[in-house]
Amino acid sequence: MLHKNLTKHFFSKIAVLLLIIVSIGCKQKIKEKPINHNQIPISPCKEIELIGKDPMKRKIMKETINFFLSTHCFINNRGIVRLHISADRESNEVWTMYSDIEDWHLRRSDVTPLFEDFDGDIVLIFGINHEAENKKRTEEERQRMRTCIDQVIGNRVYQRPTREDRWSSEITIAGPTGDTLRIGQSRSSTGTSCKRRVVFYDDGTYKASTTGFY
């Protein structure tokens, strides 16, 4: 009889312990919050106001984006602006803007933490000192910037496919081992990239030139 009571008491304790574990597990699940895609963490990247509400700079960026659209450098709802800031021989500020529709930001050696949300379009900003600043960064720091910039860009660019095979019945080449391989035509980029250059003068005017494609 004593043995049965001890056994019953033992299993009662086990049952209570299991209930506590289940209860704690449920509470932990309740505390989990759903992912808010409108508040994606972007650290260590920094959103800045280079264009902001400045009428002239807004006009330049709108003209640039329209140029990229009209020349089909922005296609299929894909495209971001890559803005490089420099100075010419007369110390005038120069903006060189490129269209990107591929995820080059994940493979570039020079990275930037700076971006601006221009009316829903993403502008990556490479400041006048970005080369010197980038050399000081470790590869781990660069990778963190690539990751956060990729979160900011989202699906605005094409992603490079992971598959590497490209079979073709038309093109045959000799492989490094001497075997005959059938590999389809390769292309370095998707679509055409465009470039636009703007020089700002001290008198408040500017000169824009579309050097076409690169």
Summed over residues and divided by their number, the pLDDT gives a mean of: 80
Instruction: Give the amount of beta strand, in percent.
Output: 15-25%
Largest sheet: 7 strands, mixed
Helical run tally: 4
SSE pattern, N- to C-terminal: HEHEEEEHHEEEE
| pLDDT < 50 stretches | 20-35
Gross morphology is: globular
Quick one: how many beta strands? Answer: 9
Question: Quick summary of this structure?
Answer:
The protein is of the alpha+beta class and 214 residues long. It has helices at residues 2-31, 55-70, 130-136, 139-153; strands at residues 46-47, 80-87, 93-100, 114-118, 121-126, 172-174, 180-182, 194-200, 206-213. It has a 7-stranded mixed β-sheet, sandwiched between helices.
Overview features:
globular, alpha+beta, 214 residues, two-stranded antiparallel ribbon
Task: Give the secondary structure arrangement, pairings included.
Elements: H1 2-31, E1 46-47, H2 55-70, E2 80-87, E3 93-100, E4 114-118, E5 121-126, H3 130-136, H4 139-153, E6 172-174, E7 180-182, E8 194-200, E9 206-213
Parallel strand pairs: 1-4, 2-5
Antiparallel strand pairs: 2-3, 3-8, 4-5, 6-7, 8-9
Molecular structure report:
With 214 residues, the protein is an alpha+beta fold. Helices cover 32% and strands 23% of the residues. It contains four helices and nine strands, in the order αβαββββααββββ. The chain has helices spanning 2-31, 55-70, 130-136, 139-153, and strands at 46-47, 80-87, 93-100, 114-118, 121-126, 172-174, 180-182, 194-200, 206-213. Strand 6 (172-174) and strand 7 form a beta hairpin. Residues 20-35 have low confidence and may be disordered.
